[in-house]
Amino acid sequence: MSQKKLKVGVLGATGMVGQRFVALLEHHPWYEVTLVAASANSAGQKYADAVKGRWALRSALPTATAGLTVKNASDVAAIAGEVDFVFCAVDMPKDETARLEEDYAKHETPVVSNNSAHRGTPDVPMMVPEINPEHAAVIEAQRRRLGTSRGFVAVKPNCSLQSYVPAIHPLMKFGPKRIAVATYQAISGAGKTFESWPEMVDNLIPFIKGEEEKSEKEPMKIWGRVEGGRIVAAQDPVISAQCIRVPASDGHMAAVFVSFERKPSKDDVLELWKSFSGKPQKLGLPSAPKPFLQYFEDESRPQTRLDRDAGNGMAVTIGRLRPDAIFDYRFVCLSHNTVRGAAGGAVLTAELLTSDGYIQAK
């Protein structure tokens, strides 16, 4: 990267994930937040005023961003003329989000999105950068469809799967066939804090709309292949998921059960987790955790409060690997849902796409 930072806009900057983007990018070596945008209700206010009483993070509001005037995210042409690319975390109906993101792309402004609107679009890469960086190649087909030279949309997958899919991935050579997973998901995944959602204190809710479907289907695209200008989903493994909201502020835990076509030894599994390194680690990307996967021998770990910030919230922690009476193995995993699972995962995706030349200064 050159020393001149790329100019970045954050769409949906007043929401919880938008705030996380702003916080993560405060001292980023490649990117500078020069524009924040939200709905018409917030447009025209200083960012500090727009999030007053709503700042949900423990870290302080970045001074450089506090004084920016919030733009209307729907003013695509104006915003596209001011930034090199945008991160998207808008809270809009899915069809409206899909149109908005393609509008930015058609205005030659790459979009790296936290939203689900384009996760099922065949020529839109949905990336966990350590797992499927090769899917970036589909961007050229998407550009042809959109009629753009530099604009495109890339997305990150749902937060519910980003604790357990990274743990399964290094084991793919053994042919995982069946996975059962129960995720225990923090309230920040719903954009909430305990102050705004007091009924979650001392409570569990055994339903999160759309999460189980996403957790079962999205890994198939991640493990798919690029063919004929589209991503063709994998057929295996079969995944059965239950997603439960729990009274934790941040951090998604997963209890995982897996059967293989060829059962590895426990030592094989532990060694593959220990040695796994993806393209972001090999490139030394700014947000890439080293190591990506961390295994605890202590049977009481990982714990949400103790371990969600591993690798600055970008690592996945694993524990309690043991044989299972029905499946081959069971274990637990943990990831930070608004860092690795949301804004941080999108930032790492942008870093990979920048390194590969897909995102450049205008």
From TrEMBL:
What are the BP-aspect GO terms?
methionine biosynthetic process; threonine biosynthetic process
Q: Which domain of life is it from?
A: Bacteria
UniProt keywords (A-Z) are: NADP, Oxidoreductase
Class of this enzyme: oxidoreductase
- Coiled-coil stretches are none
**Taxonomically, what lineage is the organism?**
Bacteria, Pseudomonadati, Myxococcota, Myxococcia, Myxococcales
InterPro entries per the UniProt record, alphabetical: ASADH-related (IPR051823), Asp_semi-ald_DH_pep-lack (IPR005676), NAD(P)-bd_dom_sf (IPR036291), Semialdehyde_DH_NAD-bd (IPR000534), Semialdhyde_DH_dimer_dom (IPR012280)
The Swiss-Prot or TrEMBL record describes its family as follows: Belongs to the aspartate-semialdehyde dehydrogenase family.
What name has this protein been given in UniProt? Answer: Aspartate-semialdehyde dehydrogenase
